[in-house]
Write a structure and sequence with these properties.
47% strand; single chain; seven-stranded antiparallel β-sheet; SH3 type barrels; 5% helix; six-stranded mixed β-sheet; 3 domains; 3 helices; mainly beta
Length: 405
Amino acid sequence: MEPNALPFGLTALFLCLVSAPASGHISYVRVLPDDASDTDSLLVHVQGAMPDGCWEAPTEGLARLIETNIVLVDLYAVDHHVGDAFCASPGPEYDVLIPAGHLKPGTYLFVVSEHHGSMRDPQPIVLTHEMTVYATGSTELKNWKGGQTPYGVRYGANRRVDNRWEVRQKSMPDSIRERSRDLREDLDGDGLEEVIQFSWKMNKNSDRDTFLVRVNEVEYRGTGNNLAGWCFVQDIDSTDAFKELAIPESGPSDDYAITYLYYDGAGIHEVGTIPGYPDGVSVNGSGRVVGERRGSILQTWYYPAVFELNAAHRLTSIPQGLYPMYTRCVVSQPFPLVASPEDPTIVGVPAPGDSIMIVASDDARWCLVELATGQWGWFEVVEYDIVLPARLPAHQLMQGLSYAD
């Protein structure tokens, strides 16, 4: 079902929040699977595009049941426009898959809100989607019909990563492989700028480069795998006193990562290391950092990885349950799909030549698939890419997987 208007009974509740969508913003809502039972774990699929390049698009969302039949789904976009700054067009697109869990049989209204941290466009954009959850075994439970879903390409197996850091390091003459960079920034919130010096040295005999950070008279020494050779300042949590130093690296095989440090006026301390490269990491002052992690099962793929600052000012990983994969494959050998990780009932067997979309995975054992007919099902993976119950490598069952390294 396409997004629809709010029913009369809820119009007053949301009238103060809803404004007509501007150019861009949230445009598509779908709850998966289309015809769900109370044993299905639901996913809310949301897509949109921001009005211009000054916007930071949502990378995650939260779904929660607030009444017997209303599910609120919240996403957050941030506008970094300042003054008369020019903002290029078009703006970034987003494609988010939000776990909504299990619901009891009944008809539900999903109210999806794109919230704005913006002075130019502070009003949220709200779209709704109505769907019915059927009781298991109900005669009303129809065959899944699916639909035409415009899958995104930000995450998944086909994502290409810029290799500019490695090229830059290899092309440097020995005389400038060791370099430093000076910054000035108030890192500890005392109103005074710190003098920040960063230097690094490439190790010709291993991938572990060394670096030195000096803030005023305090030093911190560390290592990284193929360091980028520079650092920068970010503010992970705008409500605390600190700003963080970010030190990027390209890793052993385009396994990009950023190490964060903070200065408290007396010492320099490690905040944590997250996967991702600067252009692909989201930091908006909320206390959360969203990076890009390489998947650990089935194929070479990447997905958004969420981290949050804890009370000790350390970044901790926040599991998301399911992660978008978005890989289209053509089946080579038939294999069964089951109703859910908890329900072994076979709901479909794609035949050779069938096109399937691997929509998401828990990055542990299970992958969620949509068939060309719109039917949904799951298959289990062990030992990286062995598909059960066939116990065959995934590349023997389907074509289109990526095995880059």
